[in-house]
Amino acid sequence: MTNILICGIGGQGTVLAAKLLDQAAIANGLTVHSAETIGMAQRGGSVTSHVRIGNGCFSPLIPLGTADMIIAFEMCEAVRNLDYLKQGGTVIVNKKIMTPPSSLLAGKSFEEDSMINALNKAAGKVVVIDSDKICNELGSTKIVNTVLLGAAVKEGIEGITKESVEKAIRTSVKPKFVELNIKALG
Fold first, then answer.
1. From CA 178, how far away is CA 45, in angstroms rounded?
2. What pLDDT is stored for residue 146 in this prediction?
3. Which helix H or strand E contains 25, and what residues bound it?
4. Which of 6, 25, 93, 157 has the smallest number of Cβ neighbours within 10 A?
């Protein structure tokens, strides 16, 4: 059983990333369960997708303390969801910080160093990705999801290969964006 929590802010592509991971698992003959919580996502709210791959799973929701990996599209969301990570788990996190509007109104700020320190204390491994840089190099800001998914696959997700994710991209992404997403996958 592999548990992966994907988290971010509405509009970043977390739901598509989960769908690609689901399809890659199915293409490799694996059982997969997933669920999204997307409530206020269209208004910039938090989005989480639970992906559970393997046998012995009877619920699509990941229990606290059991996620093997968190793929975070934004640093504040990574820290907010650390309770899901198991001891020694891996965090793939986008370097980008999007301070929640309620925090801005309260005069709070979030600093990269303090959040990375919190992630390092909780995780066995933290991989920080500068998606803005990669997206600029590839010419599109709409591929953060595949950039982070590619980093996660490189770190290792049992039963998931780069080729199976490429196949999922070819069947799930609009044809004019397929090659760009495959490049973003790395």
1. 27
2. 95
3. helix 14-27
4. 157
